[in-house]
Design a protein that fits this description.
The protein is built from six helices and no strands. With about 170 residues, the chain is mostly helical. The chain is about 70% helix and about 0% strand. The protein is elongated.
Length: about 170
């Protein structure tokens, strides 16, 4: 529903939210943070003991190694999700590193699930293989579209909005 159809008192705040966060990398980073932290914390056993070791990659090294990588990606993405409108070079560089780490971890997991499915050790591994194959490409697509969309954003207008919010 367009913001113009909402009550007048909420419109300025919603416009600010839309322009300063929703149209930034914030939602992508929030999604990556939640999913990466869920993976990482589950491997640390936060949600119960993890003994499954159901796909081949998990057996290459200690499970805490994989858990740590997922948690690092999740925490970094969470920090970037809360970062105000990321237009600085530092933000772009940091978000690129986090997206690369997340993409790499998902790709490793995808290969592992595909191998498990192909070798017949994971009957339903195809579902997770497809998920981990498609997920990073959706994020890359969204990041690309977000960065393309923000190229036309009037930065002076954004600074004016930010000043009004701060007042």
């Amino acid at each position: 529903m367009p913001i113009e159809h909402l009550p007048a008192p909420v419109r300025p705040g919603l416009r600010s939210f839309r322009d300063l966060w929703w149209r930034s990398f914030g939602p992508i980073m929030a999604f990556m943070s939640v999913t990466a932290l869920a993976f990482g914390l589950s491997y640390f056993g936060i949600f119960g003991t993890y003994k499954a070791r159901i796909h081949p990659i998990e057996n290459l090294t200690a499970i805490e190694f994989w858990a740590t990588l997922w948690v690092i990606a999740g925490v970094a993405a969470g920090v970037l999700a809360l970062w105000p409108k990321g237009t600085t070079r530092g933000y772009r560089a940091a978000s690129s590193v986090v997206i690369f780490l997340y993409f790499t971890m998902c790709s490793i997991w995808a290969v592992s699930y595909w191998l498990g499915f192909i070798h017949g050790t994971l009957d339903r591994g195809i579902a997770m293989a497809v998920l981990f194959t498609v997920l990073p490409f959706l994020i890359l697509h969204d990041a690309y579209e977000t960065s393309r969309e923000n190229k036309g954003v009037d930065k002076e207008k954004l600074h004016d909005v930010a000043r009004r919010i701060a007042e």
